[in-house]
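Each field is set out as follows.
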Amino acid sequence: MNTTAKLGGLGAVIALLLTEVPEQYALYAAIFVFACSAATAIIPPPHTGSRWAVAYQILTTIGLNIGWAENHFKPGQSGVRVSVADKPAAKRAVASAGIPVLNRDGKPEPTKVS
């Protein structure tokens, strides 16, 4: 599913949920969403298998960390920052070391035969 579809669907759900919040509490709901987003920017993700991993994922979802705002570091994953020009070489180096390169969903990318 592409990011636009995710944002559209999530936006519709959020809009629907916000219509159910009484008007006098709408500001508090918005502050809660903002606080969840800020917390995920400050708190490092827990390790895989941690009892906090599910709570962290819920926090990122409430904080609307999706698409371009999605956290690059997720529970049990790390990121290697390289320039865009070096990305193909970095992927080959990691794959040649026998380490699977993960896609956005945290699943191994298919290896390309060149």
In short: The chain has a mean pLDDT of 76.
